[in-house]
Write a structure and sequence with these properties.
Radius of gyration: 30 Å
Order of helices and strands: HH
Number of helices: 2
């Protein structure tokens, strides 16, 4: 085979390999985006549940109590 034909075949192989790698990266990125969106949707559901709201309120009350106790301990 002459050198020019070998170079064309090699360029074709490299081009096809590049396209395959690029397609894989694009599909992998889309799958990762779907996972992130799914986790975000689940987190949003959790934060809107009555149990979560109640837990947040209890945590806030606990923080306030801790501040009061620290203030009393410091003599304020």
């Amino acid at each position: 085979m002459d050198k020019e034909r070998i170079m064309k075949i090699l360029a074709g192989i490299i081009t096809i390999a590049g396209i395959v790698v690029l397609a894989f990266l694009i599909l992998d990125n889309k799958a990762e985006q779907r996972k992130v969106q799914q986790v975000a949707a689940e987190d949003e559901k959790k934060t809107q549940s009555p149990e979560y709201v109640e837990m947040e309120e209890l945590e806030n009350q606990d923080k306030e109590k801790q501040k009061e106790l620290k203030a009393k301990a410091n003599g304020n």
